[in-house]
């Protein structure tokens, strides 16, 4: 009786191990597990035009980014400061530049004094997969 119970436990562990291995193999392909692939593809580099790393921001600032090698309609960019909720940036169609923009009011950025504050930009493709990320540290007046 004890042998059959032990054999059942071993069989159960082997089954779980095989399942874990199968899931791991599936997750090695980008199409099976969104977000698990190299996000530093050089021809699709996320360029943070403003703010630059180390910049001092004052009142309202226009955040500007672009993803090299992609049309504006092919991706979305979200920004956040110090782990706050992400906000979707908009396509800049008025100036003729191929950039994503967001007018940010830094007046209320006071929880960290003058800073530094960490601003994170995340670009996603049309399936919601992360394709690039950049982080800059800024200060406020």
Walk me through this protein's architecture.
The protein has two domains: 1-33; 42-140, Immunoglobulin-like, CATH 2.60.40. By secondary structure, it is α+β, with helices and mostly antiparallel strands. The protein has one helix at 2-26; strands at 46-50, 56-57, 60-67, 76-81, 87-88, 90-91, 100-105, 117-124, 130-140. Helix content is 18%, strand content 35%. The strands form two sheets. The chain has a five-stranded mixed beta sheet with strand order 2-9-8-4-5, with no helix packed on it. Strands 1-3-7-6 form a four-stranded antiparallel beta sheet, with no helix packed on it.
Strand order of the largest sheet: 2-9-8-4-5
| Biggest beta sheet summary | 5 strands, mixed
As a whole number of angstroms, the C-alpha radius of gyration is 22 Å
**Fraction of residues in helix:** 10-25%
The fraction of residues assigned to DSSP E strands is: 35-45%
| Cα distance spanning the termini | 75 Å
Query: Poorly predicted ranges (pLDDT <50, ≥5 residues)?
Result: 18-39
